[in-house]
Design goal:
The structure holds two protein chains of two kinds. Chain A is mostly helical. Chain A has 16 helices and no strands. Chain A has a domain of 176 residues: MetI-like (MetI-like fold, Orthogonal Bundle). Chain B is 74% helix and 0% strand. Chain B has 14 helices and no strands. The chains are: A mainly alpha, B mainly alpha. Chain B: It is a multi-pass membrane protein.
Chain lengths: 278, 295
């Protein structure tokens, strides 16, 4: 008896909950497709009665702030941070996971702590530091360097558990076969840890992709700022043009949605990472 | 056996990343202290004399009052978000850990709110809660109440931010609690049923106490992740109306990059650091205690 009723009740409940939960996302996409006049119609139209893609094409032609340009800036910043974070984090996590040396516990703790520090905490001194280095201005560098500080600790902490979990025999048999440390790492350890490497690359990318604070503070030239900064500016000056803003938002989540579809099963491990104890 | 070569390899591997973090995060934290004791503003940030003012910036900020308002706001916001996220996250965890069609897939979909850039979430909520937005439209048409200017009235503005952030935080709570739920052995429930316990009793007497470790880390990590809110506030309310939703992070930003009082911005950030530091210590202490009791 009980089984039969839960067979249809629970899926319906689950789907209903999800419809409510994901409504904001739906609303953004729907609004981006509505013509200006329909947006504030009362009562609201729950789906676009006339589909209007002007808010997308208008941006393409570059008449106002260019969405696609912002998209390109975000991509450069996110990819740059991803490269720095991955190149530095892979060896560091390998060192912490496979080697025992004095201070390794404190090093790990330092990574754990820096992962939790908010950007707003270090923004002012970082701005002054970059100013002295000549990196405040029309350049992506300061933003890339700053965003990598979010990816590095996350990647180190996540990958360390991956490397630490690999059996010791792998290294030993490689040694017997005459592999040096470097060859063992590239030929054996790294390929095995690849799923973990993909996770940290994805998250390093996403952290930087979502950044607003560094991009809008460090990059002086508006046309070089990330898409999030474009949205911020857009909301400040053109708050009435909601369909354009929503088109902006929809375009900016394309990579997030793609990543979500392809690496969904890894996301859970990323989410719970902050909770694992060193 | 710790061979010398092994030790050196370890350091060589770890130190580049560590130096990077020390240079771009560690140094700024120390420099924050130095900056907060000087008077650095837009005139003397690049060159010129930067006079030492001691604790003058802190004194001025506390006397002026907005800093205190922002501390109170941040704490109210953080506590409200943690409670709401926890309740809804637990409900989600309980629902989606049942075995039914699509359960796994639906649980996966929840994750998307955590992945979206906060800027986008802020924009969506700003639009939904705007004067003629879908929230007001629904309220008036369903006769649930009268039109509210959510984002420009103090308490409703705070409520909007709390709702938006709760939406972001639910997946995190759900996943941690789901993990916690899977560690509870099923036969405990069976024997409780035999003893005549009903569903509610089982929840209060078994589920919640057994989730305690997960709940501890949720509270502390939730605090740290919620406390640092920035984009959401900056975009949805910009700290307004009249500082009613001014948070510590947005205030520190405003001082440095809207008013160009860099030293005061650094001082406000330091106050924030002290609060986070205390919570962080608390967390490490709890983790250690838990490890001792579980080993």
């Amino acid at each position: 008896m009980k089984k039969r009723y839960s067979a249809w009740l629970l899926p319906i409940l689950g789907i209903a909950v999800m419809i409510v939960f994901l409504f904001p996302l739906y609303w953004m996409i729907v609004t981006s497709l509505k013509p200006e006049g329909e947006i504030f119609q009362t009562p609201v139209t729950w789906y676009p009665h006339t589909i209007d893609i002007k808010s997308y094409t208008e941006q393409l032609s570059g008449s106002s702030y260019n969405i696609w340009n912002g998209f390109k800036n975000s991509a450069i910043i996110a990819l740059g941070s991803l490269v720095i974070a991955t190149v530095l984090a892979i060896p560091a996590s390998y060192g912490l996971g496979r080697y025992k040396f004095p201070g390794s516990h404190i090093f790990l703790l330092l990574f754990l702590v820096t992962q939790m520090l908010p950007a707003s905490l270090i923004l002012t001194p970082l701005f002054i530091l970059f100013k002295h280095l000549g990196l405040i201005g029309p350049t992506y560098w300061s933003t890339i360097l700053a965003n990598a500080t979010m990816g590095i600790p996350f990647s180190v902490v996540t990958l360390r558990t991956y490397f630490a979990g690999l059996p010791k025999e792998l290294e030993e048999s490689a040694k017997i076969d005459g592999c040096g440390t470097i060859r063992t790492f590239f030929r054996i350890m790294l390929p095995i840890a690849m799923p973990g490497v993909v996770v940290v690359m994805v998250f390093s990318f996403l952290f930087a992709w979502g950044d607003l604070i560094y991009g809008m503070t460090f990059i002086s030239k508006e046309s070089m700022r990330p898409i999030t900064a474009g949205i911020y500016t857009f909301l400040g000056f053109q708050s009435t043009s909601w369909n354009n803003t929503m088109a902006f938002g929809t375009v900016s989540i394309i990579p997030v949605v793609l990543i979500f579809i392809f690496v969904q099963k890894y996301i859970v491990s990323g989410l719970t990472n902050g909770a694992v104890k060193g | 056996m710790l061979s010398r070569q092994n030790k050196i390899t370890g350091y060589v591997l770890v130190l580049p990343a560590l130096f990077y973090m020390l240079f771009f995060v560690g140094y700024p934290i120390i420099d924050n202290i130095r900056l907060s004791l000087l008077d650095v503003n837009v005139m003397n940030v690049s060159h010129g004399e930067q006079p030492f003012v001691g604790l003058g910036n802190y004194k001025e900020l506390f006397e002026e009052g907005v800093l205190v308002t922002s501390i109170v706001n941040t704490l109210i916001y953080t506590v409200a978000c943690i409670v709401l996220q926890f309740i809804i996250g637990l409900a989600f965890a309980l629902l989606f850990s049942k075995t039914f069609r699509f359960a796994q897939r639906l649980r996966g979909l929840v994750m998307i709110s955590w992945l979206l850039p906060a800027t986008i979430t802020a924009m969506m909520y700003k639009f939904m809660f705007s004067g003629d937005g879908v929230v007001n439209d629904s309220i008036t048409h369903l006769h649930l109440g009268s039109h509210i200017d959510w984002l420009v009235t103090p308490v409703p503005a705070m409520i909007t931010l709390i709702i938006a952030n709760t939406w972001i935080g639910i997946p995190f709570n759900m996943i941690l609690l789901t993990t916690g739920l899977t560690t509870i052995p099923k036969d405990i429930y069976e024997s409780a049923s035999i003893d005549g316990a009903n569903a509610l009793q089982k929840f209060w007497r078994l589920t919640l106490p057994l989730l305690k470790p997960a709940i501890y880390s949720l509270l502390v990590l939730g605090f740290i992740y919620t406390f640092k809110v920035f984009e959401l506030v900056l975009i949805a309310t910009h700290g307004g109306p009249v500082n009613a939703t001014q948070m510590m992070s947005t205030y520190a930003y405003k001082l440095s990059f809207e008013l160009f009082k860099f030293s005061q911005g650094a001082a406000a950030a330091n106050v924030m650091f002290v609060i986070l530091f205390i919570v962080g210590i608390l967390y490490l202490w709890m983790v250690r205690r838990e490890e001792v009791s579980s080993s």
